[in-house]
Predict the structure of SPOR domain-containing protein.
Amino acid sequence: MAPAIKNRLVGTIIIFALAVIFLPDMLDGQKQTRRDIIVNIPASPEPIILQEPQSYSLQEEKLKTSKPITLENDVVANDVNPSDDSFVPNASTSSGNDVIAQTDDVKTNPQSTLEQQTFIQQPNDEEATGWVIQLGSFKHQKNVRELMDKVEKAGYRVFSQPVETSVGKLNKVFVGPDLDKSKLEKSLSHLQEVTGLTGRVTPFTVK
């Protein structure tokens, strides 16, 4: 064999051996480099969890905003017209449902007027022989008796008078009579504390 061919074969073998020895290391180095690149990638940030606002039910909201309301069945409107005989008090003294009527066409029963010696009318101040405090008008006689007992225990003279109205027969309760109008006016606040009623002073005439 020619020496030139031998030299080529030896060189080829040496190159092949070097390739076999160093090629795997070169490939591993590239893989390691790629692996390092992957590892160095920063991790994604954790998601931020927002707390949902606390929700209230409709019923709870109503309980917070609502206010207790106290109803008094026996409180009625009051007409402050001084010329109206059918004066209605602000409140009733009985726990029962005492119906109190307020009307402009209250008419006194002629028969009951004849049976009684006193009656209430609206004369002028010069014609008035006295004054009374009108406490209120009641439908049930039981409430009238309870109110009169309470007023008498407080040291006042008291009487009642039946009247006929458009809603039926009512009983008016009066304190007095007295010739001194200012004395009765000063008693209004005390009577309101005793009975819970707002009375008013009206003329009283004996016939």
Notes: The first strand starts at residue 118 and ends at 119. The chain is about 40% helix and 20% strand. The beta strands are 118-119, 130-138, 158-165, 168-178, 200-206.
